[in-house]
Amino acid sequence: MMSYLLLKLPYFTVVVLTLLGLAAMVFKKNLIKILMGLSLLESAVNLFLIVTGYRTDGVAPIYTNAPSLHMTLPTVQALTLTSIVIGVATSAMMLSFAMVIYKKYGTVNAEKVKKLKG
Amino acid sequence: MMKIALYSAILLVLFGGLMYLAADLPVGAPLQSDMDDYFIKNGQEQTGANNIVTSIVFDFRGFDTLGEATVLFTAVLGVGMMFRKMKEGEEYEND
Amino acid sequence: MKMTKIVRTTADVFYPFCLVFGLYVVMHGHLTPGGGFQGGAVMATGAALLLVAHAYEDITGRLRKTAMKILEAIGLMMFLFAGLSGLLFERPFMGNWMAFTGKWFSHPVAHGPNPGDLNTAGLLPLLNIGVGIEVLGGLTIILLYMLSGIHAEKKP
């Protein structure tokens, strides 16, 4: 049982991180804490992409002074690069939205920012 | 109180379902790797670069990198639009 | 209220080393792990170090917004024109026409593991430099705009 848990540990970490991010987005009321939950969710997805392309006892897919020719998969690492940059761009825009909301309403509580309702 | 109990129940069901699905995925031996074997074998003589990941990002799949640079540029445009200075006598609309 | 003199002097001494290391990561993108996006982020970290150590009024004389806007636009245009130059030489868009013929980055590459040669890989170093300059300009502009937004609120 313990050896099975240690073998599949990367995928269990991905599930735990996803649920922590979702719980932070659902249960918190401060706008900035909700954005931190979204950033956790994006980190979980990036980790899942990289774990998919792992070969046991593999080295990095680079030919400069390579110790062996048994390499891990390189396509998934290219997709993760794009995903990280898009996460940075989205977080920057949402944090600047939060700053302008604070300047207009005087509070960052998500339940008091409701002039659009009714 | 009812809302907190309902959301916690949904999250626990999701936890159980994802753990059950994650127990079947293989670690360490990917099922299909034909495209990556082609890239590792022929990437050095078709591109001339030692780094296979860079040759994938900029040569075999360069169009995705063009889209990514545009997304970064648009995000900087959006942040710059948020913090502009109002001229004298202007106000926010729909106040 | 300012930071102590030790912190400000250390940040001033470390800032050129950050820029040089970032440029090394960008230029050797086709030989070692790294490339355009990673090196640009390292260079923007040097600018963030300066912004944290000094007060906001002292630093807008050194890191101007106009210079960073020009840098970002030049980076994206260099990427686009390097991609379009493939159409002039009977290759598809972003085709590698410099790889094994021509003058600039065109040494042949030995098979298998080898110590790397900087002069290889055709169009790839030009694309790396374009993306590196764009990421440096973009991330520094985001930091400067957010700090100027905070600063404008504090004035009574």
Q: What are the SSEs and their pairings?
A:
The complex is a heterotrimer of chains A (118), B (95) and C (156).
Chain A: H1 2-7, H2 9-27, H3 31-51, H4 75-105
Helix pairs in contact in A: 2-3, 3-4
Chain B: H1 2-22, H2 34-47, H3 52-60, H4 62-82
Helix pairs in contact in B: 2-3, 3-4
Chain C: H1 5-27, H2 36-53, H3 56-59, H4 65-84, H5 124-154
Task: Explain what this protein looks like in three dimensions.
The complex is a heterotrimer of chains A (118), B (95) and C (156). By secondary structure, chain A is an all-alpha fold. In chain A, 65% of the residues lie in helices and 0% in strands. In chain A, helix 2 packs antiparallel against helix 3 (31-51) and helix 3 (31-51) packs antiparallel against helix 4 (75-105). The longest helix of chain A is centred in the C-terminal third of the chain and has 31 residues, at 75-105. Chain B is mostly helical and 95 residues long. In chain B, helix 2 (34-47) packs across helix 3 (52-60) and helix 3 (52-60) crosses helix 4. The model of chain B has no long low-confidence stretch (mean pLDDT 89). Chain C is 62% helix and 0% strand. Chain C is mostly helical and 156 residues long. In chain C, helix 1 runs antiparallel to helix 2 (36-53), helix 2 runs parallel beside helix 5 (124-154) and helix 4 packs antiparallel against helix 5 (124-154). Chain C has five helices and no strands. Chain C has helices at 5-27, 36-53, 56-59, 65-84, 124-154. At the A-B interface, helix 2 and helix 4 of A face helix 1, helix 2, helix 3 and helix 4 of B.
Main attributes of the structure:
heterotrimer, B: 95 residues, mainly alpha, 4 helices, C: 156 residues, 5 helices, 62% helix
* Cα Rg of chain C: 19 Å
User: Strand-and-helix sequence of chain C, N→C?
Assistant: HHHHH
Q: Rough shape of chain C?
A: elongated
Roughly what percent helix of chain C?
55-70%
How many domains would you count in the coordinates of chain A? 1
Name of the top-level CATH class of chain A: Mainly Alpha
In terms of structural class, how would the helical and strand content of chain C be classed? mainly alpha
Structure classification of chain A: mainly alpha
Tell how many strands the DSSP assignment of chain C holds.
0
Distance between the termini of chain A: 55 Å
Helical fraction of chain A: 55-70%
Oligomer: heterotrimer
Largest interface: A-B, 43 and 39 residues
Total number of helical segments of chain C?
A: 5
- Biggest sheet descriptor of chain A: none
Number of domains of chain C: 1
Q: What is the overall pLDDT average of chain A?
A: 92
- The CATH architecture designation of chain A is Orthogonal Bundle
| End-to-end CA span of chain C | 17 Å
